[in-house]
Amino acid sequence: AFGAFASKLSVGGETAGARFDPQANLWPVTSGRFAGQRQAITYQLGDGGNLDNTGVLAALQRGAASVVALINADAPLGEDVDLCSPARGADPAAQATGQLVQLFGFKGGASLKFGFYEDNQVFDKSALPPLLCDLSKLARKGRPLVARRRLEVLRNARWGIEGGAEVDIVFVLLSKCKEFEALLPAATRAEVARGELGALDRFPNYRTVFQTGDLTRLTRVQANLLAAQAEYSV
C-alpha cells in the first residue's frame, strides 16, 4: 500500500515513490507465445496489493470456474446510504471497500488511493448494487457478510482475461458481526467496546499498518480474535 501511495504523492516536483520506493530493472519471461527479447524497464516496487488485494483477477486468468474471495476490507461496509434504495445522486460504491467495487468497474472506496485499480473491471457494473444490497441486509441482521453469485466474466486485456465464461463466486467481506460478538465472553466483548482505548481497537477492520507499535504486526489477541470471526463466518 505504501508503495502505491508514495508513487502518487508529489514531493519537490517528483513522486515520493521515486525517492522512497525500492527500484529494480525487470523484464518478462518469454515463451513460445511471447517470443523474442524484451527490454528491461526500471520499475518502482511494492507488494501485490498495489494492483489487486483479492486474488480474483489471478484466479480468472487461470480460468477458474469457482472462486472464494476473502476480502480483508480496510473499512466496514458503510451505513451512510441505503444500499437497497440509494437516494438520487448517492454513490453506493463509495460505501464499500475499493477492493470489491474495482472488480465491477467502480472507482469509489477509500482504498483506491493506495493502489492502481482503475483497469480491474471483470464484472458488469449492474451486478454491484444488488450485491451491496444483500450484504447490507446481512449487516443489519448482525450476520457475516457472505454472498454467492454466478457472474459473467468480462474481457480484460490488461490482465489477459478473455471473458465470456461464467464464474461461481463467493464474496466474504470483513466487517463487524454482531452475531459473532454476542457469543464472545463478557470480558472480550467489554474489550472490543473500549474502542481505541482497548487492546482490540478497530476490530475486525484493523489497520494494515501501525495497528500496534510495529509496522505490520498484530498482537496474538488481535490475530486470534480475527481468525475466530473468519472461522465463524464461513
Could you write a compact summary of the structure shown?
The protein is of the alpha+beta class and 234 residues long.
Characterise this structure.
With 234 residues, this protein is α+β, with helices and mostly antiparallel strands. It folds into 3 domains: 2-44, no CATH class; 49-175, no CATH class; 179-233, no CATH class. It is 26% helix and 15% strand. The longest helix has 14 residues, at 220-233. 24% of the residues are buried.
What is the fold's blueprint, element by element?
Blueprint: H1 2-8, E1 10-11, E2 14-15, H2 16-20, E3 23-26, E4 41-44, H3 56-61, E5 66-71, H4 98-101, H5 128-140, E6 145-152, E7 166-173, H6 178-181, H7 186-193, H8 220-233
Parallel strand pairs: 5-7
Antiparallel strand pairs: 1-2, 3-4, 6-7
Keywords:
8 helices; 3 domains; alpha+beta; globular; 234 residues; two-stranded antiparallel sheet; single chain
Number of domains: 3
- Unreliable residue runs: none
Number of helices: 8
Arithmetic mean pLDDT = 88
Count of β-strands: 7
N- and C-termini, Cα separation: 27 Å
Q: Structural class per helix/strand content?
A: alpha+beta
Strand neighbour order, sheet with most strands: 5-7-6
β-strand percent reads: 5-15%
Computed over alpha carbons, the radius of gyration is 20 Å
The major pleated sheet works out as:
3 strands, mixed
Categorize the overall geometry: globular
- Percent range of helical residues: 25-40%
Order of helices and strands: HEEHEEHEHHEEHHH
